[in-house]
Amino acid sequence: MKRAMRIIGAVLVIALIGVIIFLKTVVGGKSIYISTGFEKDVMIKVDQTQTSRLEVMAHLSDMIDEYEELFGEDIWTETMDGVPFDEYVIRQVKSKLTRIKCMNQVALSRGIVLSNQEEQNIGKAAAEYVAGIDKASVKKYDITEEAVKDMYRSMLMADKLFDDLTYEVDTEISEDEARVITIQYIKADTPEAAASIKSRLDGGESFSSLMKENNPYEYEYELRRGEMEEAFEEAAFNLVTGEISNVVETSKGYYIIMCVNEYDKVKTAVNKEKMISESKLEKFNEIFEPYEAELYAEYNDELWEKLSVEDRIVTTAGFQDTYDKYFK
Questions:
Q1: Are the CB atoms for 154 and 120 separated by under 8 Å?
Q2: What is the pLDDT of residues 125-154, one digit of tens each?
């Protein structure tokens, strides 16, 4: 479930607003140039920091596994944002690692270091990840614990920079602001039709039967603030479980709403964390992007062009999952 939630979030983020830090595209506003001066298997350079082929493959393999788990192996025949899906995923990895390396460079300049305990956990995470990799992948990608430790250090330094730049962000979000409710609703195109439906409801007919009669399909929805028009939300969030609203007029039609659950505690907690993360991300980008604009990212196009989703590191423990186990 944790893996599924992360990758679903990633798809929505990249397609819409870039909510998750490391999947935010970083090319816009940056100075980018191409260099042929790369050491063997180096795919990205940002000043003093480098990204190896192994690091790219670890992140790419995670994404390949997760997309296939969610959507099946046929996902690679699809397109996204006008490009083949495999190319789209490789672009995700490229953007993600460019942002991580830019963050590493800024973290170094700000004197951020890892503690002894963090270094110990990096060692444990690297040993666990490598232990789960099959022998063919270890040989093919020359995987060592020391190399994986460096990769986890890079991720942790980026996380620590994020925390450093956002520690003063106001995270006070009330339960009501984050509240998630479950509703059903009936839509009508005219006020007369809506009034007729409301009259029948008042006369004792069931909401469910009238919803099926008047809607092309049943409408049940988990509602969060900011997702619907103000009039709709005002009516919905003021209902208690089992209560039915009056007719609500919006620009899209006329609605009658029934509250199925006035407060989903678990989903409200998840939504609250999401809202806090978005608030921190907004503040982070505001502070970080001026630093980022001064950095130069170099790409080894020859190696990037050879990447394929047909290749992956075969492992029983995902690279990101293992990191999350020790640091999230």
A1: no
A2: 999 999 999 999 999 999 999 999 999 999
C-alpha to C-alpha distances, 29 to 82, 83, 91, 290, nearest whole angstrom:
22, 22, 17, 9
Contact 76, 309 (CB under 8 A): yes
How far lies 315's CA from each of 35, 208, 269, 293, 319, in Å? 33, 48, 32, 36, 9
Bridge partners (DSSP) listed for residue 297: 32, 46
The confidence score (pLDDT) of residue 170 equals: 79
CA atoms of 225 and 178, how far apart (whole Å): 7
For residue 73 the two structure tokens come to: 């192996």
CB 32 within 8 A of CB 95: no
> How far lies 203's CA from each of 9, 197, 206, in Å?
44, 10, 9
Single pTM value for the model: 0.74
- Give me the DSSP letters along 246-309: --EEETTEEEEEEEEES--HHHHHHHHHHHHHHHHHHHHHHHHHHHHHT-EEEE-HHHHHH--T
- Reading the block at residue 72, the tokens are 């099946």
DSSP states of 56-110: HHHHHHHHHHHHHHHH-GGGGG-EETTEEHHHHHHHHHHHHHHHHHHHHHHHHHT
Q: What angle do CA 110, 114, 115 make, to 5 degrees?
A: 130
The beta-strand segments (E) located in the chain are 31-32, 42-46, 49-52, 79-80, 83-84, 181-188, 220-223, 248-250, 253-261, 296-299
Tell me if 150 sits within 8 A of 122, measured CB to CB. no
Spatial contact of 49 and 101, defined as CB atoms under 8 Å apart: yes
What does the pLDDT look like over 53-85, one tens digit per residue?
Answer: 999 999 999 999 999 999 999 999 999 989 999
Query: Using CA atoms, how far apart are residues 236 and 79, in angstroms rounded to an integer?
Result: 37
Instruction: Decide: 172 and 260 in contact? Cβ < 8 Å.
Output: no
Angstrom distance (rounded) from CA 107 to CA 101:
10
